[in-house]
Structures are given as C-alpha cells and as structure tokens.
Amino acid sequence: MRTALKARAIAAEVRDPEMPMLTLEDLGVLRDVREEGRRVVVTITPTYSGCPAMATMRDDLVHRLTDAGYAARVEIALSPPWSSDWITERGRQALRDHGLSAPGPAPRSGGPIPLTLMPTARAMSCPRCGSARTELTSEYGATACKALYRCSDCIEPFEHVKEI
Amino acid sequence: MSHSAPDPGHEDGTVYDEALLGTDTSHWAFGTDFEDPLAGVDTTVPAELDAGELAAYCLALGDDALVMSHRLSEWCSNAPDLEDDIALTNIALDLLGQARLLLARAAAADPTVVPALPEGSPAPVEDALAFFREAAEFRNVRLVELPNGDFAHTIARLLLFVTVRLAAFERLVTPADPWGSDPVLAAIAAKGVKELTYHRDYAGRWFLTLAQGTEESRRRLLAGLASVWPLHDELRAAYDVGPEVDVVLDQVFAVSAVERPELAPMTGRGHTEAFSRMLAEMQVVARAHPEGLW
What we know:
Oligomer: heterodimer
Radius of gyration of chain B: 21 Å
Helix content of chain A: 10-25%
Number of helices of chain A: 4
Order of helices and strands of chain B: HHHHHHHHHH
Helix content of chain B: 55-70%
Low-confidence stretches of chain A: none
Structural class of chain B: mainly alpha
Order of helices and strands of chain A: HHEEHEHEEEE
Low-confidence stretches of chain B: 25-34
Number of helices of chain B: 10
Largest sheet of chain A: 4 strands, mixed
Distance between the termini of chain B: 35 Å
Mean pLDDT of chain B: 90
Structural class of chain A: alpha/beta
Strand content of chain A: 15-25%
Largest interface: A-B, 56 and 63 residues
C-alpha cells in the first residue's frame, strides 16, 4: 500500500547535487510531499534565486519516486525564502564530517538592512583541525551558498556555508 | 541513514565516493530539460492590480537583472584575481535567477508580453522574452547596459545598481509598496533581498578598498564613478527610491573620502548603441537555433 509517509521517506533521501553529503531534507529545501490520488507532488524551494541545481533535484526526485512506482511531479515554493537556519542538525554534522563549515544563525531581519564594509565576522572553527583562527578568503565560492576560508593554523582552505 | 566521511587514506577518497552516490550517474546530467521556475506557484494576479502594469513592472525589474547579469558574466575568466572572478559570476548567477523568476512572472501575469516564437520552438516564456525581443522592447535602465570598463568601473556601477535595487526590494516586501500585494513578486523580492545584501557589501568593500588603496586604484575608481554617475538619476527614477539610498551611498563615500559627484544626468532615454551589440551576442545562438533544446 502506498502511503505519503513512504513517498516522503523516498524524497527525503534524495541528495543535493552540489553538496551530496546533504539530503534535500537535511538542506531544508524539501518543503512538502503530498499524494493526490495516484500521484505524488513534491514541493521544493531554491536556496538562491539562481540555484542551478533545481533541475537536477527535480529530475532526481522524479527518477527515485518513479522507480518506487509513483507518478511524481515537482513544484516550486518561493515563500518563505530559504534560510540556512533550515539545515538540520544532522545536515550540519554531515557538512563538518566532509570538511565544510556549517552556517551560524542567519541574520534577523527588521528595519533597514545594514551595510557591512568590514569582512563578515563569524564565530567558527576550522572543520579540519578545530582551530578558531580562520581567515576569510572570499564571500563567494564554488556555489552560491558558500564562502571561502583558510585556517591560519593548519593553513588548509575550506568552505563555509553562508548564513542567509 | 549514516553519512560516511571520506577516507583521507585513500587517494580517491572524496565526498563523491561511490558509497555516497551509488552508481546513479544521473547526478551529473545537468540541464537536460526545461523547467518552469514558477512550477506550481499560484500566479493569479490580485484583483487590485492591473495585470498589464504588473507585467511591465516585472519586465523592467527582470530586464535590469538580466542585462546586469550579462555584463558581469563578461568578467568570467577576466577578473583581476580568481576570487573576484568567482564573486562577479556568483552575483551574475543570482541576478540571472532573479531575471528568470521576474520574466516568468511577467509572462504569467500578461501572456501578451511574450513575443511570438518561430514555429516549433520549445523555448519557455522567459527564454522567449530574453532572446526574442528587440532592443527597443527591453525595459532596463541604461546604467546596466554600458560596456564594461575596468574593474573599478564595474564596482562603481555595481554599488549604485545593487544599492538602489536592494532599497526597492526591501520596500516590495512591505505593505507600503503597491506592487508588493502581488504575492509572487513579493516572494521573489524577499529572496532577492538576501542576495542583494551580499552584493552590496561586496561592492561597498571594494569601493572603499580601491578608494583608499593606491593612487592608481583611486584614480580609476573616481573615473569609473564619474562615468556611471550621469545615469544614477534614471536608475533612481526607475526604482522610485529616495533618501534611504543616499544614507547608504553617503556612508560609502564618507569612509572612502570620495565626494558625491556633481554631474549632470545623461539626457535622452531608451537604449545605447552598446546595448544592441550586447543583445546581438546574447541572443545569437537562440535565434540561430530556435528549435534547439538545451
């Protein structure tokens, strides 16, 4: 017997193509899984407006659910906008296990957004050696959601998932 | 489910290990199909808004993002260093994403804005709008279409553009903005606010760095600012922004010890000759292969 629970479990295991240590559920982009008759409708949300992984996420979801016998469709939700706060604790651990630094709390909105002319200050540690002495290389990295850092102690570069 | 860490003792020990992804190679098949960036989103126009006017406004916002994105992407592999190459192309990608959503929103609000396509073309509406309109049909401001100068020119232009756009998007997510009553546009703006905040910080930091750097970097920055400033009034008018923009710009100018330029606004309207050349390059492949699927 097909159940929404089973469809959800299948959708939840699909991985982010750019950070494959994270499932879509861990990343917080899987917003809803519901059955309409024999069909499953999965709702996902983009991390950034230009996220090029959306098509792959959709294809992977359709592929996995089709393999499990479902007729699947993927829809987009734009609101509320994705926040890095939606990355689960398990997702944060998976990031650290794979040498990425997990995001801190996202900035809270309210009032005019302040201009920040100094490098963003983050309380963070090197995911490799644990040192708190880290240096920002660039606020932009290989994907829209990551900044580049370097550890001042072990000298290794690493990626940090940005707070938005 | 467990997450196995990569084995550093193995020369191929990466996060892309077979153990993590299995043997499913479809993960690497990007872009094999079109997608509707508003799939499943309710695009009904609220009763209090005029669909044609909403579509025109979304086209203007989308065209600005599209054209600025194209100019920024021209820096790809040409930026002063790798980090800024990546930064400029990341910003271009964010703006391209905003453009896709806004053009799709315009087309959903008023399908008559979408140009007719050659018979059999599978291009989705946002591609039809991007690649099959003539220059005169684009609604972007002239600031974003100017040819790239040097890096300082790009920073000066980017600072003006994203400061004004962020102010307008911040307003779009509040009840104070009449267009904000469109939940689709408000949702696009709410995502854009987060991205533009990073863009503005990037432009502001580089503006300060170049202004207070060397004699040469300062000279180039002042020249870049002087060349884009005459289009500042047109930009502000298009976004209908006020003192909230001056607060930010004056802050950047003050720490950079740069005087606010006193230059007459550029006269005329419409588009520059450079825009036609840019569009020719941007549109040539789509127009040469209107039945193409990629």
